[in-house]
Amino acid sequence: MKKVYRYAAIAMALLIAGGTAACSQDKDQAKTNAPAKAKSEKTAPALPNYRYVDLDTILSRYNLAKDYNEEMLRMQNNAESQMKQHENKIKNFANTVQHKMQNNGYLSEEAYKSDENKMANLQNEAQRSMQNLQSNLAQAAENAQKTINDSINAFIENYNKTRGYDAIFFKAATLHINPALDITDEVVEGLNARYNKVKK
To answer: Which string of b and e fits 156-168 if b means at least 16 CB within 10 Å?
Structure first.
């Protein structure tokens, strides 16, 4: 009976010793891992208080800019169509003059000069028309650009009232910038939400 107690006591002593050693190892391990754990749990450094937007992306996705782009394309196509009409008109009249000359269709020099003057008038009319169309196109493009720029600037100024960024840059003005600072998507979403509300 005493042997059993002795063995039990020895076993208990071994268990306690093992437990103490394990605890000691756990503590040592915790100490060893403490710096690494603390390092891994360390919060990422705060981003600087400025952001940037990609203007090309805004212009390709902002509904106002897309609508103006479609309008400019319509104006361009209209200008090209009118230019083609003038060219065909001049070409057809030139063919008529050529046909008359080849078939003795001019009975007098005055008749020929009259057609010459008509040809010159057609050419001058085409030139004036093209100049007007190009001028209107350039003016429309300038107005569209101003309206879009004013709209973007006004939105960002209002947008930043609730963000409090020290600066908002255009991406094109930087050589390298952290992508985490990009707010382009948020700005596009806000621009389109505002534009759709007032769109007729």
So the answer is: beebeeeeebeeb
* Owner of token pair 């391990």: 29
Q: How many residues does the chain have?
A: 200
Phi, psi dihedral angles at 167 (to 5 degrees): -160, 150
Q: What is the pLDDT of residues 80-134, one digit of tens each?
A: 999 999 999 999 999 999 998 888 888 888 988 999 999 999 999 999 999 999 9
Q: Which tokens belong to 184? A: 């382009």
Beta-carbon contacts of residue 174 (< 8 Å; ≥ 6 apart): 52
Burial class (CB in 10 A: 0-12, 13-18, 19+), 191: buried
Cβ atoms 183, 168 nearer than 8 A: yes
140 touches 72 (CB < 8 A): yes
Residue 177 φ/ψ, nearest 5 degrees: -150, 145
| Per-residue pLDDT reduced to its tens digit, 6-39 | 333 333 333 333 444 444 444 444 444 444 444 4
Q: Express each pLDDT in 164-182 by its tens digit.
A: 999 999 999 999 999 999 9
- Percent helix, strand and coil across the chain, each to the nearest 5: 80, 5, 15
Beta bridge partners of 50: 167
